[in-house]
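ugh ok fine here u go
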Amino acid sequence: MTAQDYKTPDSVGRLQRNALAAGGIGLLLCIVAAIKSPQIFFPSYLMGYLLVLGLALGSLGLLMLQHLTGGHWGIVIRRPLESATRTLPLLAVLFLPIVLGMKYLYGAWLDPERVREEPLSAMQQGYLTAHGFYTRAVIYFAIWLLLMFIFNRWSREQDVNQGDRLLRRKFKMLAGPGIILYVFVMTFAAVDWVMSISPHWASTIYGFLFVAGQLISAMSLMIAVVVLLARTAPMAGLIQERHIHDLGKLLLAFVMLFAYFDFSQLLIVWAGNQPEEITFYRSRLYGGWGAVAVTVLVFHFFVPFFLLLSRDLKRNMRLLPKVAIYMIVMRLVDLFWMTRPEFTAHAVPSWIDVVVPIGLIGLWVGMFAFNLQKMPLLPLGDPKLSEAIAHHEH
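structure:
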């Protein structure tokens, strides 16, 4: 097998052009929104940014998980995962509007007037500073970019030195610590970028919620992409029902993991019933936001949970991608519920809440499709490739 045999089909190029066109239009509307209504734009931007960041970081987590476990499920999506991680430089640039809009997002600890009205503890005052926010953000992206660079570089080396088992051991040795580092750094990033919107409330499981959500987003994306690639050469006939069945089972596992973390946080806060701990749920379980909470509960957990229990659906290349895309949409709804109540009592999204995510997703998908065309669609140097794509009798 050669790299020429596994070039991306023309459909990926069309996806890139269409996505960039949608992203360009969305970007122009974002500029209009930022000028016209910055108090609405920046919370919307944070919500959309967290979604596309989750697609990249969730892919990084899945990539390291595959190298650690060596499962066949990850070999067929290895190159899409690597392509998704290589969007991190774009995401580092797209983080700048969050820095520029800090006064609209983090006024609870940046605005001296608000701090005087609701004083912070000494530890919070020392941690929640603009300088600390900038410094930690640089550290987070440096760690993510370093992991991305190493795994992508070694993957290219593996294609050149096909069958090199030393590289495979290096992958596995770094993947374990890399996963721990990813979870650790994402926890701090979630605290800085999201939980600090309401600095008087805290949760020790908050970062795990974002990690689980990112894994759902990334796995959903991989299912949609691998089925798209399976429609035409060179992947037609290589992607089998057993492959998407494995991916569907993992998606179900991540949905259950997310629900476990989310319910654990609610249960602990509910049982404690402390005034300083219930503020997060008090603003999210009553009024219009209560309806959104029920929507998230039903359509983000129960519906996909019962759908993905079906073995037939997990092996259906027509239905499973639709469920996967639906899960990405529901991730956006969940992020809307997690972030927006701190800025408004109204649970009805504005046009900005729709336009900003579309623009960011368009730019991200365009970059992803561009990256996907730079490498063969399969990791040709992986020693387990032949076994992973071999046809099995069911």
